[in-house]
Amino acid sequence: MISQAMIFSAGLGKRMLPLTENIPKPLIKINKKSLLKNNIEKLIESRFKNIVVNAYHHSEKIINETKMFESVKVIVESERLETGGGLLNAINEKCFTENIPVVLLNGDIFWYDKKYKSIDKIISLWNPRKMDMLLCLKRKEDFFGYNGDGDFDLQSDKFSSSKLEIKTNPLYAYTGLQIIKQNIIKDVKKNCFSLKEQILKSLEKNKLFGYIDENQWFHIGTAEDLKKFKENYCE
């Protein structure tokens, strides 16, 4: 049973300025709760017992926001480590049970669990015999706030999950929710690196899988995104 997770909350939130001058982006409020608290509560609802949050920018405010949750541990980073470095640092600090996969969430994502619980869904699709990483995806035009060119395509649409590939003009975007095996990253010899590096390595090994989530997802990346969300999607 996967019951350990990490929420990446150590970014500077530059695209959200001036709102993030005095708070980290994960503390931006959605429906009267911070993005961070929303995601912690979703994990707890899915019976997670061990939730790690990394912090850097205004780290004391991350600590204050999470102190009510017994299952949450905050790691304050003394330097920027990016996503891969942040996860490796948490592994090296013995924050997780060894050999058990970890659910990862970006600190600036939000979704509504209307169809099902997305965290339960991704866990139900996890297959450790085939997968090193499993990514939650959305068709890029259905992903609020996403302005990129797409990240991946599915090798097959006949199954609930599929190996991923990268073609010209990919159809799907990565939401910021994934499952990863610890052992594929724990021997990396550098401190600061992005998980994108490991994603590409897993892709080369045919160990990178994805699925298309049916819930409504939001990437709250800019102040304008936040304004549009509040005008159209707040509950």
Name some characteristics of this structure:
235 residues; 26% strand; 9-stranded mixed beta sheet; Spore Coat Polysaccharide Biosynthesis Protein SpsA, Chain A; globular; alpha/beta; 13 strands; single chain; 25% helix; two-stranded antiparallel sheet
Named at the architecture level, the CATH assignment is Alpha-Beta Complex
Oligomer: single chain
Structural class by SSE content: alpha/beta
Largest β sheet strand count, sense and barrel closure: 9 strands, mixed
What's the gyration radius in Å?
17 Å
Number of DSSP-assigned strands: 13
Order of helices and strands: EEEHEHEHEEHEEEEHEEH
Helix content: 10-25%
Mean pLDDT: 93
Q: If helices are DSSP runs of H or I spanning 4 or more residues, what is the number of helices?
A: 6
User: Which strands sit side by side, in order, in the main sheet?
Assistant: 5-4-1-6-11-8-12-10-9
CATH topology: Spore Coat Polysaccharide Biosynthesis Protein SpsA, Chain A
Global geometry: globular
How far apart are the first and last residues' alpha carbons, in Å? Answer: 32 Å
